[in-house]
Amino acid sequence: MKTDMTVKIGTLKLKNPVMVASGTFGAEYRKLIDVGSLGAIVTKTITLKGRAGNPPPRVAETSSGMLNSIGLENRGLDDFIRNKLPLFPSGKTALIVSIAGDKETEFIQMAEELNKIKKVAAIEINLSCPNVKHGAREGLVAQDEEASYNIVRAVRASTKLPLVAKLTPNVTDIARVAVAVEKAGADAVLAVNTFAAMAVDIDTKKPKLGNVTGGLSGPAIKPIALKMVWDIYNKVDIPVIGAGGIMNYCDAAEFMLCGASAIQVGTATFVNPNTACEIAAGIGKYCAENGVKKVSELVGNINIGAL
Amino acid sequence: MKQIYAKILKNENLGNGFRRIGIAAPYLAKNAKPGQFVELRCSGETDPLLRRPFGVHRVTKGGIELLYEIVGRGTEIIARKKPGEILDLIGPLGTGFVLPSGKPTAILVAGGNGVAPILFLSEVLAKKKVKQHVLIGGRSKSHILCEKDFKRCGARVSVTTEDGSKGHKGLVTHILKELLADNGPKPAAIYACGPTGMLKAVANIARTHRVSCQVSLEEKMACGVGVCLGCPVKVKRGHGLCGTGYEYKMVCKDGPVFDSEEIYWE
After folding, report:
1. What CATH number does residue B81 fall under?
2. What is the pLDDT of residue A91?
3. Residue B72: closest CA among chain A residues belongs to which residue?
4. B50/A273 touch (CB, cutoff 8 Å), yes or no
5. Which residues of A are identified as catalytic?
6. For residue range A42-76, what is the model confidence (pLDDT) as tens digits?
7. Residue A295 has pLDDT above 70, yes or no
8. What is the pLDDT of residue B244?
């Protein structure tokens, strides 16, 4: 029996629930893997104008994890549309473009431009950008329900494309932010981005990142990310996309059982470029072996017994 | 570039924490160019998590060799691997050295484990009948590697150690300065790999004497293919995004070999 692997994220239909996460995938990987076997590709976050990024070192390894502080290096929207977008295949693998900005107007302008491009299947809103209030920076947008609501609502009004809101885990109650972006019109909520973290070289006494602090990803964060997906799943009606340390199909199945309609593979691609493709095949096999007719039957199907 | 599962042929101890691993990989033997590198997965476990980059040290019949120094947990794991075991690696990655045209003289400068990619370069230059002078520098006698291998390539070899336990006492850059100060014919190119301080000094000397110079850089990496933007190096660019005379290039994709004049040395 062949399992129906398709999933729906709002109006976006994916051939399977496996996506590659923003910032961890580029056209370079076409040489190493079968990109067409992925459900979706999320491109590296772009901003309206280019950004130079943070000083090195930008990455550091920790126990079963990786710290990064890239600083959203990118050449801006125009360069992306002209030079990067054509490198991605147009086919049954959905292309989702991740955007960020310092101001609402920047998000709106990017959403309007992307709305015109046929190849773009959806927009992922990276809400882990500085929250500028009264000219001062107050944490990240995704740490503020109201600011998150306002950005998602503004983007919603400027495009018909399906919207995925990417949340930071660095909050007290992530489900409240998820509810806010749902109210604002997001088609799906993605949890989670990296955990704020740092590491120090005790010989030089220097931080291991040039930016001093950064974000932790990789298998070290998986159980925490999983619980956040579960928390969100219990509070919203829109699909949840799970991410955080997924290394193999077992991890992916865990996320789906805890409520994720789809999953994203990030850091694992660096370890093994073929990870996402292997997960797509692995989930298919898992479903077939367990008599699952549609992969979406897994979503939230955790067996917690009688409550 | 390809992802390859290759059999280990040997994993020999060169002493003092330096080792040389040989693997069967016809694809890499055929396609790797001097200065390019491979990303090697230490184990199938998640800790250590990321691949480790190693410059191709030598191309053998049907395979390649990597020279590495045990500096942490990743290299400790690699050091324990036995012949017959399978290694997961991606390569060849990055740009290589631009070889000189014709048959001029080249100066190769290697500091410490920086000899790793320089030997491959030397072997290729030897085939092209390029006259070579190799300068090897290290902290002490035990940090001087591959001297015999370079001699086998027909190179003239000068050794310097900081403690004077072998060769000239001092820094490898002292010899380079003396060489270029000679009124003899100028070398066509300088190729260097080693610690950043050494590379910066070599770049300065090259500029003073107007000799073209290529340096192979090292930076912490994640993807190794230009995707994650995790291994930046500052390069001179007036129209850069920083507006301060530099912008970033990626060591993995744009390098690891750069023209020393392009680097924004700090």
Report:
1. 2.40.30.10
2. 84
3. A61
4. no
5. 129
6. 999 999 999 989 999 999 999 999 999 999 999 99
7. yes
8. 65
Number of domains in chain B: 3
Pair B203, B244 in one domain: no
For A22, the domain range is 7-53+70-194+218-298
In a domain, B226, yes or no: yes
Q: Could you tell me if B153 and B235 lie in one domain?
A: no
CATH number, domain of A232, equals 3.20.20.70
Q: Do B248 and A218 touch (CB under 8 A)?
A: no
Beta carbons of B51 and A53 less than 8 Å apart: no
- B135 found inside a domain: yes
ipTM entry: 0.93
Contacts of B1 in chain A (CB under 8 A): 31-32
> Please, which residues 57-86 of chain A have a Cβ atom closer than 8 Å to chain B?
57-61, 63-66, 68, 70, 73, 75
How far B263 CA sits from the closest chain A CA (Å)?
14
Where chain B has pLDDT below 50, the residues are 239-240
Q: A307 vs A109, which has greater pLDDT?
A: A109
**Structural domain range at position B189:** 105-216
* pLDDT at position A128: 85
- For testing contact with chain B, the best of A46, A51, A61, A278 (most B CBs within 10 A): A61
The predicted pLDDT at position B188 comes to 83
Averaged pLDDT of chain A: 94
Question: What's the CA gap between A35 and A91, in Å, rounded?
Answer: 10
How many structural domains is chain A composed of?
1
Query: What is the model's pTM?
Result: 0.94
Q: What is the pLDDT of residue B170?
A: 92
